[in-house]
Amino acid sequence: MFDDWHDDVLHGKPPRRFHIGDGLDHIRFGPGMVALLGGSPGMGKTAFVMQSVVTAMSADDSLRVCVANVEMPPERLLERQLSRLSDVSLTDIQDRTLNDRQRERLSDAFDTLDDIADRLVFVRSPMSLENVADAADSIDVDLIVLDYIQRIRPVGKHDDKRGSVDATMDSIRRFANAGCCVIALSAVGRSKDAKGRSSYSGDGLSLASFRESSELEYGADDAYLIVPAKNSDDDADDGVVDVELRQLKSRYGKPTDIELTFDRTRQRFELTEPPMSEEHQRLRDSIAGLWGDE
Prior knowledge:
- This protein is an alpha/beta fold.
- It has 9 helices and 11 strands.
- The chain has helices at 2-11, 45-59, 74-86, 90-95, 100-116, 129-139, 161-177, 213-219, 278-291; strands at 34-39, 65-69, 120-122, 143-147, 181-186, 191-192, 198-199, 222-228, 240-250, 258-263, 268-271.
- The strands form 2 sheets. The protein has a 9-stranded mixed beta sheet, with helices on both faces.
- A hairpin with a 7-residue loop joins strand 9 and strand 10.
- Helix 7 (161-177) runs parallel beside helix 8 (213-219).
- The mean pLDDT is 87.
């Protein structure tokens, strides 16, 4: 084993990674990896993962994906992607109140989804790991999305929810050992915030916040939480809120947090532009002064 490993380190190919968007390269989605993503209701866990999946499939024309979602049928998940890709309001798409200009803007989005359609499979009810395995095998997938883990039935009978989730994580590790990447979405419990109140605020959430967390936090290679950014306006009129993707665990690297904006009307995440430094601002003002009003 040592000789093979030695040769691989010096001369082997770089490990395969799934590109989920510019600025997100530190997020390790690749064969054999298990990632856990949690967050309070409305933080966009499903939206973030589906955006990541579609982006990765568009960048890698060999990537095959299986999605198990216990709350939404495939059509609703795809409509969210149509909205994100076309910049057409999700409400107009869902209500079928599209005008001619919006239908034109949907054309390219439909083309993007059509390009990945034969490499994307959805698990139908009942949501069990046996059905997930069957669907994944049907197209020999590279990546499995479990949304969300507490409501997907494992193999066998178990005395309580914690035992059920532990068994599910054991199966997930087997998927990973077989070469699949697994992204498991998880519910989180309320915790005490800085003022001692029970809430979903970011300053009170941790690895222990994942429901039935014991096996989840130990079994995952990477663990993330989507939480409201500090001073975020959750009731913004335009539906755009500031959030933080917090990396709580990284088995093979340094945890990194990033600031994002979440556009709820179009189910789209984007990187938040970093604030301009004082030196950069002074330089920009100096250049502007040279050009005058122009």
